[in-house]
């Protein structure tokens, strides 16, 4: 789980990128995105405690390493 802070930072940067391009009134689409993403991230983080799911986290870290310069 050493890469967890980096993955959370990347998720935050994704939200910021969405927000920058959000032209909806009061950035309502960004607010809706955050309302939906936070519970998903919470559940995903709880699942990482299960041994079988840790492999999925490793796979996600591998994808991030592939796309990151």
Give the key terms:
3 helices, 78% helix, 69 residues, mainly alpha
Characterize the structure shown.
This protein is mainly alpha-helical and 69 residues long. The protein has one domain (4-67). It contains three helices and no strands. The chain has helices at 4-20, 28-47, 51-67. The radius of gyration is 14 Å and the shape is flat.
Outline:
The protein is an all-alpha fold. Helices cover 78% and strands 0% of the residues.
Query: Which whole number gives the mean pLDDT?
Result: 86
| H/E series | HHH
Question: Fraction of residues in helices?
Answer: over 70%
- Structurally, how many domains make up the residues? 1
State the low-pLDDT regions, or none: none
Anisotropy-based shape: flat
Number of helices: 3
Distance between the termini: 21 Å
Largest sheet: none
Number of extended strands: 0
Output the radius of gyration.
14 Å
Structural class: mainly alpha
Residues in β-strands, percent? under 5%
Please write out the topology.
Elements: H1 4-20, H2 28-47, H3 51-67
